[in-house]
Automatic annotation (TrEMBL), chain A:
Residues 34-145 form the Aldehyde oxidase/xanthine dehydrogenase a/b hammerhead domain. InterPro entries: Ald_Oxase/Xan_DH_a/b, Ald_Oxase/Xan_DH_a/b_sf, Ald_Oxase/xanthine_DH-like, AldOxase/xan_DH_MoCoBD1, AldOxase/xan_DH_MoCoBD2, AldOxase/xan_DH_Mopterin-bd_sf. Transmembrane segments: none annotated. It comes from the Bacteria. This is Xanthine dehydrogenase YagR molybdenum-binding subunit. Residues 1-31, 505-524 are annotated as: Disordered. It comes from Salipiger aestuarii.
From TrEMBL, chain B:
This is Xanthine dehydrogenase YagT iron-sulfur-binding subunit. Gene3D superfamilies: 3.10.20.30, [2Fe-2S]-binding domain (1.10.150.120). Transmembrane segments: none annotated. InterPro entries: 2Fe-2S-bd (IPR002888), 2Fe-2S-bd_dom_sf (IPR036884), 2Fe-2S_ferredoxin-like_sf (IPR036010), 2Fe-2S_ferredoxin-type (IPR001041), 2Fe2S_fd_BS (IPR006058), Aldehyde_Oxdr_Iron-Sulfur (IPR052914), Beta-grasp_dom_sf (IPR012675). PANTHER family: OXIDOREDUCTASE WITH IRON-SULFUR SUBUNIT (PTHR45331:SF2), OXIDOREDUCTASE, IRON-SULPHUR BINDING SUBUNIT-RELATED-RELATED (PTHR45331). One of its GO terms (molecular function) is oxidoreductase activity, acting on the aldehyde or oxo group of donors. Residues 3-80 form the 2Fe-2S ferredoxin-type domain.
Length: 752, 164
């Protein structure tokens, strides 16, 4: 019986799967391969001028002088914005006025709190003139010593970690668990600062028309950010249009508002012309967040049988001197392995960098790295195969809450990935395998876990009398495939083939599509789209049931099913009516449904909801040079209903390569003396290139999750990093017998 | 001092006057000529997002001052398709999901077109991966990119057989 309040929740009104579940290629594919997809910096409104900000070259202190006259004298320079003449902002950039507001710098004063912080903006006719003008400012400073690295920073107990997550957690009696253990292992892991470095640098084109503001800027939370921009400038939200049809990658760095965006808008107000501000690559290492560095300690207690008795995970993580985002690394130990006692704790360390933020799998990635290395070390101590050890500690219920899982096909993930990889042939002891060229070969594995949150989202579906529909939500496609997957769900929601559906997304004019983050976008915005379609279909069915000329007249409680533009009686497929006929007879040209994405609160209360997976990795290491190559990775993932297997696979393999990057490549290095990023470019800040990832495979494991949400969808965007980092480190041990204590794994860690 | 240069971009002649010698080919394409398909990822030759063909050769447009390519024949991502018919490399990138966010994609595709024309990589995936390693994809669509280059080679070889 369909729930009248939420027709989508019943899943009865359409056959989900006519569009969803199909491996369609990207609907934005043609635009992206022809260069016609418009990213923010591609906008060139009439009268456009360019802004470049000057970044601080010290990490702490005050700006005492800027050579404004020299900059102003440079041909083409229009205006210089400094704290002295910057137009007012309604909200102090140091205020945290909502959950996703970070303290930021928009020239509110002359203080410097990290290297690279904006200290002035030059606006000019050309990019070249603005760039040269910024150089000519030649700032002078009163500087204080930089505090960089865990030893220089100030330690504190954070009240919360991540975005509002608990900093400390305890279950059971840890001391008892440790003393009852036959063996206790302790694993220490450090992870570095990491910078998102989306291929598209942060960019904004801002244009004022009186008190209306048009913004082209990549954004992962379009309507939320629109509202926040409006608050900064004290104008009604509807006066701001934020367009973000394509993001050139986000990875968490484009969800919150950052200072450079405010500065471009202020500059546009100052010069009364549209302004474009695009960060240079080196400017991406400061004001636009990063992943904080961590030092982690994991202690595991085990019975001789291999069952865990205690799990203790402590993470120390870096944040800025002026705001709090603590990488919630230890919380990665809450929900994976069964242990009668679990304790997790966090310590913060304030250093002179910008404030960290969510970077793809924030906490899950770095925490999993430490936990999976620890599990491998424990398996070694017990003389057990690492997979067998994990199976002996398989959690049938959520270790932290005791709740049952909404669905958990992790055993299938282990089995399928292990079989595909050939794990059964792995020798237990390290250093046993060589390839035909004499390279050391090692195999390692890790378990993947990622929660399945949902964000509030809304959508609208308009059926048209010509048998087509327009559906809309302000979704954000940063590469995960929202243009395609959301349209597939939307088409199923209105019971039409996808080519009959026009999908509008990516602009603040549309209903709030929520946040493209937390791997929750498809579930949240997709749920809203499906519900909106359901609402429109329900109205259409009511009209038909009341229409004596309709074959569906009097359908009443028996209900209807929508497919291919027709409504069918649920109990009699021979009686049907087309959307067009129903609407034309009723004199309607359009019929609008609305919906929101939601989860049944009772299910939320009773179930723990996660995507699961397993990754197996092979490394080959030169026995003399210790160069490490990841020659093969196989992952298997269970994440509920997969809307588009083609695109989901890309998300998963992309995530696994991020794991590879974490394990072997990425590291933001700051000079201890000046606090400046030493490798603020793509030659010094390594990310994998094509040749670094020769063989990466992701298997989609069938899983039906009846509780997670009406559509049974969980996320695939972030889980691929988890598990993978540990799998590679464990493979390195298996090849060399050397345990890793810090990421990325450097050659010198394997020498001697 | 005004400097005048001529660029032939995708077959169209553009006379561009520059105030000085500073603008790169990339900025001239994007800001002066208005062809924004070519992307800027690093502006210093480290990412490949700006790859175009200059007289048939793969070049990082951010590393070439526009003045130095005066008179050159330039192909950008906008010049590959014929009307609505995608170039085989473009079709292969769509079919093989050789991208996610799409920002590196114009550069990847131009690089792939150049690589195939150079004729050195053949059908060896390892050599293709090496030959495409000047183009960073932060989304890490590498498995799809390699598959797309292989697929495009096959498509091009097929059409050569049919045509010739
Ligand atoms: S923008 Fe030219 S190589 Fe990166
Ligand atoms: S597709 Fe996003 S950077 Fe390559």
């Amino acid at each position: 019986m369909p729930d009248p309040m939420n027709p989508a929740a019943s899943g009865h009104h359409v056959r989900l799967g006519s569009n969803s579940g199909q491996p369609m290629t990207r609907r934005d594919g043609a635009a992206k391969v022809t260069g016609t997809a418009t990213y923010a910096a591609d906008n060139r409104p009439e009268g456009l001028v360019h802004a470049v900000f000057a970044g601080a070259s010290i990490a702490r202190g005050r700006v005492t002088f800027l050579d404004v006259a020299a900059a102003r004298a440079h041909p083409g320079v229009i205006e210089i914005m400094t704290p002295d003449n910057r137009p007012p902002l309604h909200v102090n950039p140091d205020e945290k006025f909502h959950a996703f507001a970070w303290r930021t710098e928009a020239l509110q004063d002359d203080t410097v709190r990290y290297a690279g912080q904006p200290i002035a903006v030059v606006i000019a006719d050309t990019l070249e003139a603005a760039t040269e003008g910024a150089r000519l400012l030649a700032p002078l400073y009163a500087s204080d010593p930089a505090r960089i690295g865990f030893d220089q920073g100030t330690r504190y107990d954070p009240p919360a970690v991540g975005i509002g997550a608990e900093a400390d957690f305890a279950k059971g009696d840890l001391a008892a668990g440790l003393s009852a253990a036959a063996q206790v292992t302790e694993t220490r892991i450090t992870t570095p600062l990491q910078y998102h470095n989306a291929m598209e640098p942060h960019a904004i084109v801002a244009e004022w028309t009186e008190d209306r503001l048009t913004l082209d800027t990549p954004n992962q939370a379009i309507v939320m950010s629109r509202n926040a921009f409006a608050q900064y400038f004290d104008i009604p939200a509807e006066n701001v249009t934020l367009r973000s049809p394509y993001l050139g990658g986000g990875f968490g760095s484009k969800a919150i508002i950052v200072g450079p965006q405010l500065l471009a808008i202020l500059a546009a107000r100052m010069v009364q012309r549209p302004v474009k501000l695009v960060l240079r690559r080196d400017q991406m290492f400061g004001p636009v967040q990063h992943r904080g560095a961590t030092q982690q300690v994991v202690r595991l207690g085990m019975e001789a049988t291999g069952r865990l008795t205690a799990l203790d995970h402590h993470a120390t993580a870096s944040t800025s001197s002026f705001d709090d985002f603590i990488e919630p690394a230890a919380n990665a130990s809450h929900n994976l392995y069964a242990s009668p006692s679990i304790r997790t704790r966090h310590t913060g360390v304030r250093i002179d960098t910008g404030t960290p933020g969510s970077m793809r799998a924030p906490g899950e990635a770095s925490g999993s790295a430490a936990l999976e290395c620890a599990m491998d070390e424990a398996a070694e101590a017990l003389g057990l195969d690492p997979l067998e050890f994990r199976l002996r500690n398989y959690a049938e219920t959520d270790p932290a809450s005791g709740k049952r899982f909404s669905a958990k096909a992790l055993r299938d993930c282990y089995a399928q990935a292990a079989a595909r990889f050939g794990w059964a042939d792995r020798p237990l002891a390290p250093g046993q395998m060589r390839d035909e060229d004499g390279l050391l070969v090692g195999w390692g594995m890790g378990t993947c876990l990622f929660p399945a949150p949902m964000f509030p989202a809304r959508a609208r579906a308009v059926l048209r009398a010509d048998g087509t529909a327009v559906v809309e939500t302000a979704g954000a496609d940063m590469g995960q495939g929202a243009w395609t997957a959301l349209a597939q769900i939307a088409a199923d929601g209105v019971g039409l083939p996808i080519d009959k559906v026009v999908f509008h997304s990516g602009s603040s004019d549309q209903p709030d599509g929520g946040v493209a983050g937390g791997s929750a976008h498809t579930a949240s915005a997709g749920g809203a789209l499906h519900a909106a379609g359901g609402d429109a279909i329900r109205q259409l069915a009511e009209i038909a049931a009341a229409d004596p000329d309709s074959p569906l007249f009097g359908t009443g409680n028996t209900g209807v099913t929508a497919r291919d533009g027709r409504l069918y009686r649920s109990d009699d497929d021979s009686r049907s009516d087309s959307y067009s006929d129903i609407m034309v007879r009723a004199g309607l040209t359009e019929l609008t449904g609305t919906g929101s994405g939601a989860r049944d609160p009772a299910n939320e209360e009773r179930r723990a909801m996660f995507s699961h997976g397993a990754v197996f990795a092979e490394v080959k290491i030169d026995p003399e040079l210790f160069q490490i190559r990841v020659t093969r990775m196989v992952g298997a993932f269970a994440a509920g209903r997969i809307i588009n297997p083609h695109l989901a696979t890309s998300q998963l393999t992309g995530g696994m390569i991020w794991g590879l990057s974490f394990a072997l490549h990425e590291e933001g290095v700051h000079d201890l003396r000046t606090g400046r990023a030493m490798n603020a470019d793509l030659a010094g800040y390594h990310v994998p290139v094509n040749a670094d990832a020769p063989s990466v495979e992701a298997i989609l494991v069938d899983e039906t999750d009846p509780y997670v949400n009406a559509l049974g969808i969980k996320g695939v965007g972030e889980i691929g990093i988890t598990g993978t980092v540990g799998a590679i480190a464990n493979a390195v041990w298996h090849a060399t017998g050397k345990r890793v204590s810090s990421f990325p794994i450097h050659i010198d860690a394997l020498m001697g | 001092m005004t400097l005048s240069i001529t660029l032939v971009v995708n077959g169209d002649r553009h006379d561009v006057s520059l105030q000085d010698a500073r603008p790169t080919l990339l900025d001239v394409l994007r800001d002066r000529i208005g062809l924004t398909g070519t992307k800027k990822g690093c502006d210093r030759g480290q990412c490949g997002a700006c790859t175009v063909l200059v007289d048939g050769r793969r070049v990082n447009a951010c590393l070439s001052l526009a003045l130095t390519v005066d008179g050159a024949d330039i192909t950008t991502i906008e010049g590959l398709a014929t009307g609505d018919d995608l170039h085989p490399v473009q079709s292969a990138f769509v079919a093989c999901d050789g991208f996610q966010c799409g920002y590196c994609t114009p550069g990847q595709i131009m690089s792939a077109v150049g690589l195939i024309a150079e004729g050195d990589a053949g059908t060896d995936p390892e050599r293709i991966r090496e030959g495409m390693s000047g183009n960073i994809c932060r989304c890490a669509a590498y498995p799809g990119i390699t598959a797309a280059v292989l697929d495009a080679q096959a498509r091009l070889a097929d059409s050569e057989r049919t045509n010739g």
